[in-house]
Amino acid sequence: MGLWQRGSKRLSSLKGFVSLFLVGLSLSVAIAACSSNGSNTASAPGGAGATKKEVELTLVSFAVTKAAHDKIIPKFVEKWQQEHNQTVVFKPSYGGSGSQTRAVIDGLAADVVHLALGLDVQKIEKAGLIEAGWDKEAPNDAIASRSVAAIVTREGNPKGIKDWTDLGKDGVSFITADPKTSGGARWNFLALWNAAVKSGADDAKAQEFVTKAYKNVPVLPRDAREASDIFFKQGQGDALINYENEILLAAENGEKLPYVIPAVNVSIDNPVAVVDKNVDKHGTREVAEAFVQYLFSPEAQQEFANVGFRLSDLNGAQAKSLEGKYPPVKDMATVKDYGGWSEVQKKFFEDGAVFDQMRANR
Predict the structure, then answer these.
(1) Positions in the chain whose pLDDT score sits under 70
(2) What phi and psi, each to the nearest 5 degrees, are found at residue 240?
(3) What is the dihedral of CA 31, 32, 37, 40, to 10 degrees?
């Protein structure tokens, strides 16, 4: 073998070595990349395997749930970390249920919504973000928390207000928000209507009673927060229709308010749902669905009870243990008794429906 031939063979061997090195390097990079990507989505039951990349979850809810979620979220994060070896970082957002609903429809990237009434979840469903059947994907029709309507009075209750019928009497004024703009105020309207129906009134008589009662409302603020400000800060009205949980939470914070829970009442149901389109886009479906289910656990339900909400399962053993906290409601109606939110909205609150007719006849 000549000198040129030996040099050519060495050059060929060197090229082969470099090629093998580059192939090996590429495979190592590819394997590392695959391992990294897999850690975002692969499950590791029992916490086995490498630590996963943290996951971010956006919860959008109505304002008064904040105190409960502030306690529930850390417990869920700890549980998920133990079981899945993954950190969940929550981005909660709180506000009026109606405004939160509009924000989600307009692009607020919620993974989970917990709202004041089913109508708001239905609006997000109609916008194509939540799939039909969401109310069957969690226990108790996906109602995570409940409350009832309460009547707050002035100290000593000088007008002797004890029931819904007292709000329709001459010389009594009360504060409630506008049901055309406030989801909570729709519950208040329904409580008044239901009281008339349960007393034996037909629709005509019920409308007559509710019309008379709303003549005693001096101003219709946009939402429940403004209504509370008008009653407490501006001193208007002999009474305020509010949620029981808000009154109990105020009492927990040292502010005891005089109030009555009418024996004929409505169950104010607050549903929760996974926002399907967003979780599929974010890759957060597994953790979002787990969080929704966790809201029905005894630990989470106790946190709702601690801030004044009634439990999802009104007849369960946990609810029985809390009976001393909540006055019994003799006759409790639900929105289903009136055909569900679609029917209630159409009958009472759409343009030209019962509420507009009442206001036109003031």
Answers:
(1) 1-50
(2) -135, 130
(3) 130
